[in-house]
UniProtKB/TrEMBL annotation:
Family annotation (Gene3D superfamilies): Jelly Rolls (2.60.120.10)
UniProt GO molecular function: dioxygenase activity
Lineage start: Bacteria, Bacillati, Actinomycetota, Actinomycetes, Mycobacteriales
Record-linked InterPro entries: Cupin_2, QDO-like, RmlC-like_jellyroll, RmlC_Cupin_sf
Name recorded for this polypeptide: Quercetin dioxygenase-like cupin family protein
Keyword Iron in annotation: no
Length: 165
């Protein structure tokens, strides 16, 4: 048996930074710098029907979604699937994806990028954007740094907007 190369990574509930609004909150759990770049994790809490992430893809990591409460819709490539509490989905790198709470449900989920990418700065940038302290140009300029590359997905927006009319 070989010895571990790093200590266990731990964040206690009261240590997790929470950002966002009543519609969409993100709890920053463990970033890649705390896990030897093996994984980065957040918890997302969404109000009924709230959008979680716009369509995008990653070039370095697969993304795991574990739904702990409620139900989400996920764009996975060309398919839109529903995942309920207790379910999980892995989206491979390079696959366009997006997610949001279903129109009739709130949602709580844990998201993990594997291998990890330092992403807490990305979520803080999104928070500043929502508060008017950053611009969409800032977000576009960060795509390579945070391995978050936005894509056009008309079918996703058509599905999401169909329930808002």
């Amino acid at each position: 048996m070989t010895a571990p190369t790093r200590p266990a990574a731990l964040v206690h509930p009261d240590e997790a930074e929470t950002i966002g609004t009543d519609t969409a909150r993100v709890r920053l759990l463990l970033d890649a710098d705390r896990t030897g770049d093996s994984v980065s994790t957040v918890e997302v809490i969404l109000a009924r029907g709230a959008d979680g992430a716009a369509p995008h893809f990653h070039t370095k990591s697969d993304e795991l979604f574990v739904v702990t409460e409620g139900e989400i819709q996920v764009l996975a490539g060309e398919e839109i699937v529903t995942v309920g509490a207790g379910g999980a989905l892995v989206v491979p790198k390079f696959m366009p994806h997006a997610f949001g709470a279903t129109p009739d449900s709130t949602a709580r989920l844990v998201i993990a990028l594997m291998p990890g990418v330092r992403r807490f700065g990305y979520f803080r940038l999104l928070d500043r954007l929502a508060r008017g302290e950053a611009t969409f140009e800032d977000l576009a300029a960060s795509q390579d740094e945070y391995d978050n590359h936005f894509v056009d997905a008309p079918a996703w927006w058509a599905e999401r907007n169909a329930h808002r009319a």
